[in-house]
Structures are given as structure tokens and as C-alpha cells.
Design a protein that fits this description.
The complex is a heterodimer of chains A (about 425) and B (about 325). In chain A, strands 1, 2, 3, 4, 5, 15, 16 and 17 form an eight-stranded mixed sheet that branches. Chain A has about 425 residues and is an alpha/beta fold. By secondary structure, chain B is of the alpha/beta class. In chain B, the strands form two sheets. Chain B has a five-stranded parallel sheet. Chain B has a four-stranded parallel sheet with strand order 2-1-3-4, with helices on both faces. In chain B, helix 3 crosses helix 4. The longest helix of chain B is centred in the last third of the chain and has 20 residues. Classes of the chains: A alpha/beta (about 425), B alpha/beta (about 325). Chains A and B meet through helix 5 of A and helix 4 of B.
Chain lengths: ~425, ~325
């Protein structure tokens, strides 16, 4: 994924969250990498390059790294393939997708990690990095071959939407992962307290008569996992948290020096439980949408930096799985194309700088996963997104680029979306 | 004998829940149902009001009482009735709810009565189908005709709801009957109490503007009506309450607990009953206090009123 072409950007607003840089200037791509960058680059002389892009003051930033993406490949290609998800990613300014192991079969074997990498290289427009299962078959019983999976290219380990219920199994998997300095990305929801739940326990779920689980099912597991991190020393990432109680625990653990981080899904930043309305299944997600107080706590968390990263938690579903009564419908929303504008929301509300908000989807995931991207530094891969941070638009499901169109944001007004996306110096999307 | 015709009553064209109904709609339905009680007590019970119309009963959960009540109501009004036995249908072969209902819809029924284990099922069907949808119970959400028949029973016995207190007792957590009754009784101005162990009370139920307690003495104090709910047997083995006998000891309605209520208080139960668990047999069978048989009769009248109202079309 790199081009030998030279591309010069002039008149760009360069925003590099990794360094905090936010200046007008130019950037040069050479051999798929960022060859030069600076406020005075191309200021005086027209660059002598075959391709010059006048950014006209638009923001040029590192391409987004989405640390939680589900596709349907392998096993449910009718919903989404790596290729179709990558179309959506490119259109959303996402240049790297971390794909989840909850496929059919589950990615719990080195050969399957290899399969994902080969399929992605052959078909996908953006970089694809597979996460491998932490336990075989996501069953929570026996750990996977963490060392071999890591050698095969697994970027991290986790059971996707499932929590390892058995603390003994988890403790051993953590200790073993620590041996390889592997990162675990965990889902925190007590499976028994939330068995059969389709909503968050409270007045709204009671009114709708929906089976519901208490929000504290999350902080309960977070508290357990933090104690196990303290015991084992493993690098641990809570893939998507949704409640203030869980965030407070994680903030306190970070202060104690534990190697923990946490992320939040774009929909938990922007929607609350009331948005389910009259059983709107496109807003059924896992964990379920929470109270407004918890949603606001998540928005505060990303603005302050207490929350490390924002993910789309892109999860394609079809009419067969969504056009059902709410409790029977599948959870999940597509989100690759709405990650950038949802991440920008706190910026537009004046609660955080543009660089801070971009960090949650670029430099923070890069640092967490040890990736070379997520920065505009010289020598970094030329994975870039060009966008107008103020451009208003309305989400229209039928105009999305993914195969699945189950967006929780249909009709929602946002600001800021990708105009052009580059991966390794190659333009993979141009809105024109 | 015949009610005044032509004026639409249910403005949505469906009956999906008590929520969404106005007090005017509720009163109109109860008034209409009164006339059907009279009609049903005569020798010639049949009218031709719904002649040529088709009603489909689509029950995903077993029900003797509600299904036969709808069937009888429709037949008394001259409609054709088809009962879909879900166990023998393609639903058991993996067809989705929407596909099943769309297939039925293509057969041009006028009304679809649906009971389903999931909350929101009736609402979902009403958005996808062209006929009137009547919710006969969706998960733990609503069972509007039950609440309407309960209100009819109470109104006929007590003359109204003002300054009347209704205590709803038992398995409220899983109960659509409780939720529909709560909404309706609050709408018509009755005082409502909920009595159950904490394991059977839904989260934030106190925000419905009712008194919530786990003490039968407190809950039944000065109550005009004691409404007992069925407790599913599978929920008594230690999952929600430790045993049937412990449940009966603290929440089962016997003479001693009934004495906490207002003298002359009346007892209701949506059925089917677990005798000796939520209600003592001697109370259930005492015609002086038990309205249980009357509820069944009112059930047919209310359903006739609902079918009549829906046949007039939406407002």
C-alpha cells in the first residue's frame, strides 16, 4: 500500500494531534510516506511536482484509525465484506480498521489471522489489522495461542462483544498475554446480569416493557478486571465503556499507574436510551444506549482526555436481523462513515480543541496499538484525510458506502466529513 | 340496542396500547362496551355489524381466554375468524414475524389480533401492515383490552373511578397487564398501588406516579379493588421468590390480607389463577367478593366494542 507518486498539498490547515500542531502550511507525499511538512512549505514557490492539491484552507490530518470494526468476512459476506467495509472507511476518512474476531469462524487460529491479512491486501482500500480472540471460539473457557497469533499479525486480543465471565480463565489469559506484552481489548458487561437484556434498566425500559439489565453490570466487570490487571500487569484496554461509574474506576486506576486505557463508541457519545423511541431497532446496540447522565459523562470524558479513544463499533446488520421486535432484533449500527463527525461534536460544542478530538481517532489508537500512523510526522505513512471541519450534512442511509445501511444516525445532522482520503499516498476516496 | 354509529373512536386505526389513547377514547370504548354487555345478555346475541369482515387471531403465545374472547366477539358481530396456530405454521420453520404477518396481510384481513412474546411486536406490525392491528399482549409492554375490560368491570361495580383505590399485587415485573392497568387507571383518575416483593418490581416503577410497597398491609389499606396478578410457576423456584409457600405467606391473597382492604372490597384476577399461590381458593370462588367471572364476560363486550370502533376506521 504505497505509491511512488509525489503529491504536494498547499494551503492546508495542518492538524497533527500527535504533536499538537495546528498551522497553515504544506505537506509533501513521496513513496507513500510524508516526506516533508511545514508552515512555509510551498508558500513562495509553486511546488515542482506532478500532482499539486490546493487544500484551500481545509484540514489535512492523519487518517482515522478505527479500533473497533465488525465486518461480515468471513461468514456473513452478504452483510459486509472487508472490501465493502473499506469503501465505507475510505469515505469516512478512516485509513486503518481494526477488525474484530467475532466472525464465522471466529478468528482464533493463526491461519485465520493470515486469511484476514491476505483478503484485506487483495480486496480492501484501507489498512486492515485483525484482532484475534482471547479465548477459543469466544467461549471464555480456554485461551488462544496468543504468541503464535501475535506472530501471524494479530494486533490485539479480545472476545469482541463478550466478557470472559470466569475470573480464573481471564486471570490466566491476562498473565499469559503479559508474557508477550500483548494488548487485551475487553468488553465489560456482566453476562449474567445482562442475560436477555435489550435495554438499560430504568424508567424508559420499564415503560416499553423491554427486558433490561442494570448499567452497573459494566462497572462491576471493570472493577474486577482492574483488580486482575493489578495482579497480572497486562496492558488492558476497555474497548467501549458507557457509564460514568466505569470511567471513574478507570481514571482512578490510571492515576495509580495501571496500564489501562478505554474507548467509547460514537453512538454512546451522541445518543441516549430515549432515542430508541418506539422500538427503533437501528438504535439497538451492545452495550445498550444509556441514560442522558451517562451519555454526558462520556462526552465530558472525551473532551477532557479521561477517555482515550473513540471507535465506530461498526456492526453491519441486515433487514432480516433488524426488522424484528426490539428484543429479538440484532444489536449494532454501522459507523465508519460517521466516526469523524461524531468525534468532532465536542469540538463544535466548544468543549475541546480540534487537535484534541482528532487525537481520539488518530494518535491515541496509534499509540495504543503501536502503529506508525496517526501522525503527520516526517517519515510517517501518508495516511491522510482532507476535510472541512464545518461542512454540514445529513446522514442518509441510502447514500452510505457500506453494504449494510443500518445506521443509528439516519436523518441526524452533523458537521465535518471527509473530502479526500489517502492511504500510503494513494487517493482512495474523493468526494469531488 | 345498537350504539350510535359512524363516529370514529380510535383515531390511530389500531389498538396498540393504553399509552397513546386519550381519556375521551377510553370513555367512548367503555360506553360502547356497556351496550354490548346488554346485547350479549339477550337470546339473540348476533349482529351483522362486521358481516363480510375478516379477523385473524395470530397468537405466538398460548392463550385460551383472550383468543376465544376475541373469536367470540368477532363472531357475535358477524365477522369471519381465522385462528393461526403458530406452532403449525412456517414461524416454527424460521420465518420472521414480519414475513408471517405480510403473508397474512396479503389475504386481506380487516383486523389482526396479535399476541407475541416481544415488547413492540404489535407496534412493528402496525407500521408494516395495511389492516388494523390489535395488541393482545406484547412481552411485558401492554395488554390494552385486558385493562379496558378491568376498567369496565370496575366502573360497572363502583360507578366510576374518582376517589377509588386499586391495589395491583404480584408479578408486576413481567406483567403487561399491570403496565396497561397502571396507565389506564391513572388516566381515569383512580389511585393505584403496586404491591410485590422487590424482585418483582420493575426499575423506576415509582416514577409512574403510584404508591409502591412490598407490604400487603400498607398496599391494601383502604383499597376498593384488589387486583391479583398471576405469578408464573417457573419464577417461583428460587429465581424471583424462594418458594410458592413463602410467596403465599407474604403476598398470597387470603381472608386475613383481604381484611386490610376497605370493607366490601372486591377482588380481580386476569387469569389463569394459581390457586393457593397468589390467591386462596375460597376467595376466588366467593361470588360476594370475586369479580373474576364478571371480568371474563366484560372481556367479550370490550372486544366487541374495540372491533366496532376499529371498523369505523381511523379519525
Amino acid at each position: 500500500m504505497s505509491s511512488t507518486r509525489r503529491i504536494a498539498f498547499r494551503n492546508a490547515r495542518l492538524v497533527d494531534p500527535a504533536s499538537g500542531l495546528d498551522v497553515k502550511g504544506g505537506l509533501l507525499i513521496e513513496n507513500g510516506k510524508i516526506a516533508d511538512i511545514g508552515p512555509r512549505l510551498f508558500n513562495d514557490a509553486e511546488p515542482n511536482d506532478p500532482e499539486v492539491i490546493d487544500a484551500r484552507g481545509l484540514v489535512l490530518a492523519p487518517g482515522l484509525i478505527d479500533a473497533c470494526v465488525h465486518t461480515g468476512e468471513p461468514g456473513a459476506e452478504h452483510r459486509e465484506t472487508l472490501a465493502s467495509a473499506s469503501e465505507a472507511a475510505a469515505a469516512g476518512g478512516v485509513t486503518t480498521m481494526i477488525v474484530m474476531p467475532a466472525t464465522d469462524p471466529v478468528i482464533d487460529e493463526p491461519s485465520l489471522v493470515d486469511f484476514i491479512l491476505r483478503r484485506a491486501a487483495a480486496t480492501a482500500k484501507v489498512r486492515v489489522l485483525p484482532m484475534a480472540a482471547l479465548t477459543r471460539g469466544l467461549a471464555g473457557e480456554t485461551m488462544t495461542e496468543i504468541g503464535l497469533l501475535q506472530e501471524a499479525g494479530a494486533i490485539a486480543f479480545g472476545d469482541a462483544g463478550r466478557t470472559v465471565a470466569n475470573a480464573r480463565v481471564l486471570r490466566r489469559a491476562m498473565a499469559y498475554a503479559a508474557t508477550f506484552d500483548a494488548l487485551i481489548a475487553a468488553h465489560a458487561e456482566d453476562p449474567e446480569l445482562t442475560a436477555g437484556a435489550a435495554a438499560t434498566e430504568g424508567e424508559f425500559a420499564t415503560r416499553l416493557g423491554l427486558p433490561a439489565g442494570p448499567a452497573m453490570a459494566e462497572s462491576l466487570i471493570v472493577a474486577r478486571d482492574l483488580a486482575l490487571v493489578e495482579l497480572t500487569g497486562v496492558r488492558y484496554h476497555f474497548a467501549q465503556i458507557t457509564t460514568r461509574a466505569a470511567l471513574d474506576l478507570i481514571v482512578a486506576a490510571k492515576a495509580r499507574g495501571l496500564p489501562v486505557t478505554c474507548g467509547v463508541a460514537a453512538h454512546h457519545l451522541t445518543l441516549n436510551e430515549l432515542d430508541v423511541g418506539a422500538y427503533y431497532t437501528f438504535r439497538k446496540v451492545s452495550p445498550p444506549l444509556r441514560s442522558e447522565a451517562d451519555r454526558a459523562a462520556m462526552a465530558d470524558g472525551v473532551a477532557s482526555g479521561a477517555l482515550d479513544l473513540i471507535v465506530s463499533s461498526h456492526e453491519p446488520q441486515g433487514a432480516d436481523t433488524k426488522r424484528q421486535p426490539f428484543a429479538a432484533a440484532a444489536a449494532g449500527t454501522v459507523g465508519l462513515e460517521t466516526l469523524l463527525p461524531t468525534a468532532l461534536t465536542p469540538f463544535h460544542e466548544g468543549r475541546a480543541s480540534l487537535a484534541r478530538m482528532l487525537a481520539t481517532v488518530t494518535s491515541a489508537p496509534a499509540k495504543l496499538l503501536g502503529l506508525p500512523g496517526g501522525t503527520l510526522a516526517k517519515g510517517a505513512p501518508a495516511d491522510l484525510v482532507l476535510f472541512d471541519e464545518g461542512e454540514p450534512f445529513v446522514v442518509e442511509a441510502d447514500k452510505l458506502h457500506s453494504r449494510a445501511r443500518n445506521t443509528a444516525f439516519e436523518g441526524r445532522k452533523f458537521q465535518g466529513r471527509a473530502r479526500m482520503t489517502f492511504v500510503g499516498g494513494e487517493c482512495v476516496f474523493n468526494r469531488g | 340496542m345498537t350504539a350510535p354509529r359512524a363516529l370514529p373512536i380510535l383515531k390511530s386505526g389500531h389498538l396498540l396500547g393504553i399509552e397513546g389513547l386519550s381519556p375521551v377514547e377510553v370513555t367512548a370504548l367503555l360506553d360502547l362496551a356497556d351496550s354490548y354487555v346488554t346485547q350479549s345478555r339477550t337470546a339473540d346475541k348476533k349482529s351483522g355489524l362486521l358481516k363480510g369482515r375478516t379477523l385473524v387471531n395470530l397468537f405466538f403465545e398460548a392463550s385460551t381466554r383472550t383468543q376465544s374472547s376475541f373469536e367470540l366477539a368477532a363472531k357475535r358481530m358477524g365477522a369471519d375468524v381465522m385462528n393461526m396456530a403458530v406452532k403449525n405454521s412456517s414461524v416454527s420453520k424460521g420465518e420472521t414475524l414480519i414475513d408471517t404477518a405480510s403473508t397474512l396481510n396479503a389475504m386481506q384481513p380487516d383486523m389482526l389480533v396479535v399476541r407475541h412474546q416481544d415488547a413492540g411486536a404489535a407496534e412493528l406490525l402496525s407500521r408494516k401492515l395495511s389492516c388494523s392491528v390489535i395488541n393482545a399482549g406484547d412481552g411485558a409492554h401492554e395488554h390494552p383490552t385486558q385493562a379496558l375490560l378491568d376498567a369496565l368491570t370496575i366502573r360497572r361495580r363502583l360507578g366510576g373511578f374518582e376517589n377509588r383505590t386499586v391495589a395491583i399485587c404480584g408479578g408486576i415485573l413481567h406483567s403487561r397487564v399491570a403496565r396497561s392497568n397502571l396507565r389506564l387507571l391513572a388516566m381515569v383518575g383512580a389511585q393505584v398501588r403496586l404491591v410485590a416483593p422487590r424482585t418483582l418490581l420493575p426499575a423506576d416503577i415509582d416514577r409512574f406516579g403510584v404508591l409502591v410497597t412490598s407490604d400487603m398491609r400498607e398496599g391494601l389499606k383502604d383499597a376498593d379493588i384488589v387486583m391479583m396478578l398471576r405469578l408464573q410457576l417457573e419464577r417461583m423456584g428460587g429465581a424471583f421468590v424462594p418458594s410458592p409457600r413463602e410467596y403465599f405467606r407474604f403476598w398470597g391473597l387470603d381472608r386475613e390480607k383481604l381484611a386490610y382492604a376497605k370493607p366490601g372490597a372486591l377482588v380481580m384476577h386476569p387469569g389463569p389463577m394459581n390457586r393457593g399461590i397468589e390467591i386462596a381458593s375460597d376467595i376466588a370462588d366467593d361470588v360476594e367478593v370475586s369479580l373474576i367471572q364478571e371480568q371474563v364476560e366484560m372481556g367479550v363486550a370490550i372486544r366487541m366494542a374495540v372491533l366496532d370502533a376499529l371498523s369505523r376506521g381511523p379519525a
